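step=encode ok
step=design start
structure_in=
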């Protein structure tokens, strides 16, 4: 299920107070695979600790995020990034409405912020609001978010969780086309293709849904 700015799997260094995209996986969606999250990372200490907590698969401490957002040292861009990172932590804690509030606040500052759209989609996915999640993921495709494979992967998970295996397969194909090395999408596609050979297995796949 469970985005400095750019999207999911291993972070890279960025200059202090600059945004750059790292890749992280949110925890908490037992749908065969987790939804991907974009993690924002930058320099100031509390903001960096917030980033590290968001990046960690088990980080649940939002206090550094709170401290960073209470201060006046963040640029507008870093404030947006910290809101995104705190939202990721809230998702992990199951506080989906709080997460959505943070992503909404980031999007008020920058309506084209792909990381906020992707992660708000994850919140809605975890709440089993699949139609709204798809709206966010599709909107993220129109931003400069530079990991379209992750977005297509999340679309695939959402389609699969809502019982549309064929649409899920199409989305996973799009994900592998965008990034042939993106293993989670390849694995989901292989599982769907294998399930298509067995009606019993196919029914099990189509019935998958996250624990919202």
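sequence_out=
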């Amino acid at each position: 299920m469970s985005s400095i700015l750019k999207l999911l799997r291993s972070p890279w260094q960025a200059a202090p107070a600059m945004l750059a995209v790292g890749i992280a996986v949110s925890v908490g969606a037992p749908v065969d695979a987790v939804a991907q999250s974009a993690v924002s990372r930058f320099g100031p200490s509390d903001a960096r600790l917030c980033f590290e907590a968001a990046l960690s698969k088990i980080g649940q401490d939002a206090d550094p995020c709170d401290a960073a957002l209470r201060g006046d040292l963040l640029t507008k861009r870093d404030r947006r990034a910290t809101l995104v990172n705190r939202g990721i932590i809230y998702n992990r804690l199951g506080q989906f409405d709080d997460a959505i509030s943070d992503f909404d606040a980031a999007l008020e500052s920058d309506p084209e912020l792909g990381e906020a759209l992707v992660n708000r989609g994850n919140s809605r996915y975890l709440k089993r609001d699949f139609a709204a999640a798809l709206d966010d993921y599709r909107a993220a495709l129109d931003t400069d978010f530079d990991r379209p494979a992750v977005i297509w992967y999340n679309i695939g998970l959402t389609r699969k969780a809502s019982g549309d295996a064929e649409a899920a397969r199409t989305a996973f194909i799009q994900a592998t086309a965008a990034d042939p090395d993106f293993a989670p999408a390849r694995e989901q596609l292989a599982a769907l293709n294998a399930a298509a050979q067995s009606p019993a297995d196919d029914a099990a796949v189509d019935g998958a849904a996250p624990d919202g």
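step=design ok
step=annotate ok -> The chain is about 60% helix and 5% strand.
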